[in-house]
Specification:
Number of strands: 11
Shape: globular
Strand order of the largest sheet: 1-2-3-4-5-8-10-11
Oligomer: single chain
Bound molecules: 1,3-dihydroxyacetonephosphate
Mean pLDDT: 92
Order of helices and strands: HEHEHEHEHEEEHEEHEHEHHH
Distance between the termini: 22 Å
Low-confidence stretches: 141-145
Structural class: alpha/beta
Length: 289
């Protein structure tokens, strides 16, 4: 069923778990993640990132996601991940998304706050929940070194962490429902061992009256993920680990198959493997319940 996103956030807070927000770039991935959530009887957030527009155009995939959510046996939130252009954010509204990340974190604080406050008023009047970010999340592409998602080189990742006083002020000013929090994770594969600053996360949690979100779920050790959930994380964004998982098995299948191999057979391998990855993450995030 298409979830009431506010109810799901409240339920996660009450029962000390985190929702998995998993990026949806292909139909196989979405079918797999819904099956995984249904088998675990857990809520799910299907996340569509603006950066994946070329693979999954929002005007085509958005209505399909909403329809799939309606038909699912568990509550499903349809979420826009990292909507950086206002026009794109409005496209998500028009396509029935029930949760939207408007990402203005690269802008100066005042401008970030002003834009998010204005959008949150509109979104709330339509029953849509809003995620925004203060601090920056780096992206690490193995072999290319570390850089923030906006291409700024980083020497010290801590400089980009969310500051508790700023987070508190931002949440009060904007009225957002979810705050993306930078405390040690990166998008993509980790170049170095992740070491989350759980103490900072707890400080942020104490001074903010909204759900906290951890981006960059891939590569974080199980114990640290669970500590993050105990520290107040109510949604974990996850993609890379699932997105790269099918390649090896597909490569093997192609190499060992003598007869012509249909694409639907390859897609089915991808679905099964992504389903297992999604299932692992969803069940881990429910662990503290
Ligand atoms: P990973 O790809 O590192 O799992 O992170 C996904 C993410 O944070 C999307 O916003």
């Amino acid at each position: 069923m298409l979830a009431n996103p506010k109810e799901i956030l409240l339920d996660a807070e009450k029962n000390n778990y985190a929702i998995a927000g998993i990026n949806a770039t292909t139909l196989e991935a979405v079918i797999g993640m819904i099956e995984a959530a249904e088998e675990l009887d857990a809520p799910l957030m299907i996340s569509h990132a603006q950066s994946h527009e070329a693979y999954a155009p929002i005007d085509i995939f958005g209505p399909v996601f909403v329809d799939m959510a309606h038909k699912a046996k568990v509550p499903v939130i349809i979420h826009l991940d990292h909507g950086v252009d206002y026009n794109y954010v409005i496209k998500a509204v028009r396509n029935g998304f029930t949760s939207i990340m408007y990402d203005c974190a690269h802008l100066p604080y005042e401008e970030n706050s002003r834009r998010i406050k204005a959008f949150t008023e509109i979104a709330h009047s339509l029953g849509i929940i809003v995620e925004a970010e203060v601090g920056l999340m780096p992206s690490n592409i193995v072999g290319q070194g570390g850089c923030t998602e906006y291409g700024v080189a980083i020497d010290n990742i801590r400089e980009y962490y969310t500051k508790p006083d700023e987070a508190s002020r931002f949440v009060d000013e904007t009225g957002i429902d979810m705050l993306a929090t930078s405390f040690g994770t990166v998008h993509g594969l980790f170049v170095e061992e992740p070491d989350l600053d759980i103490r900072l996360l707890k400080e942020i949690n104490e001074v903010t009256a909204c759900a906290l979100v951890m981006h960059g779920g891939t590569g974080v050790h199980e114990e640290q993920l669970l500590e993050a959930v105990s520290g107040g994380i109510r949604k974990v964004n996850y993609y890379t680990g699932m997105g790269i998982a099918p390649a090896e098995a597909i490569g093997r299948k192609i190499a060992e198959t003598k007869d012509p191999l249909y694409y639907h057979e390859i897609a089915d391998i991808a679905k099964s493997i992504m389903k297992e990855k999604a299932k692992y993450m969803i069940s881990l995030l429910q662990n503290n319940k």
